[in-house]
Design goal:
The chain is mainly beta. The chain has no helices and 22 strands. The strands form two sheets. The chain has an eleven-stranded mixed β-sheet, with no helix packed on it.
Length: 202
């Protein structure tokens, strides 16, 4: 558990640490680690393993799981998850209130009242808005992207990178296209998503 001050949790396979004013706790070769925040402004940085990992990011906690590895950070104010190796998936969940999303090929960030979650360089990102009025801006890659959407969900992807952003339970999202070769396919009436920039209907 953290201190009454500002604390910093770092989780990596093989070594995790929690540091704050006047103390530092380091654990090594422990496959399952839980860290708890309370008072102060607390930050968690969570790194992937050499294999394929899945991180779940909610307003209450973030948990990453992979081969012989699990780390969880609960009630931290700012959480940053990093994908370095393997094919990694980030699942981001909104709160009961109004949340804001930004996603591009380098990172996805969701924030709301009392939480800030960021997933960097993940191959696959899934976003579930939840309650409230959730909005977002999603940006294309430098290559050729395809956007597919209906009244419930949307998917922006570029398999060559790979770049994959899945969206659902969102109230208003702008998907911004800069490449003139982007394509889109919209099924039915989709009033929650706006495609801006360059998109060719297919």
């Amino acid at each position: 558990r953290d201190s009454a001050g500002d604390d910093w949790f770092i989780a990596r396979p093989g070594e995790s640490s929690l540091t704050g004013p006047g103390y530092a706790v380091i654990v090594r070769d422990i496959p399952t680690v839980h860290a708890y925040a309370s008072a102060g402004i607390d930050i968690a940085q969570i790194y992937d393993s050499v294999g394929d990992d899945t991180v779940i990011m909610t307003p209450e906690y973030t948990r990453i799981t992979g081969p012989n590895y699990m780390a969880r950070a609960k009630a931290f104010d700012f959480v940053h998850a990093y994908s370095v190796r393997g094919f990694d998936t980030a699942k981001m969940y909104g709160s009961a209130g109004n949340d804001d999303l930004r996603a591009d090929p380098t990172f996805a960030r969701m924030k709301g009242s009392g939480f800030y979650n960021r997933a960097k360089l993940f191959e696959r990102v899934e976003v579930y808005g939840g309650g409230g009025y959730d909005t977002g801006n999603v940006y294309d890659s430098a290559g050729v992207d395809h956007l597919q959407a209906n009244s419930v969900e949307a998917l922006l992807q570029n398999p060559d990178l790979p770049y994959y952003v899945y969206l659902t339970q969102m109230e208003k999202v702008k998907v911004r296209g800069n490449s003139p070769h982007n394509t889109k396919h919209i099924e039915g009436v989709v009033d929650w998503l706006i495609a801006k920039g360059f998109w060719t209907d297919v």
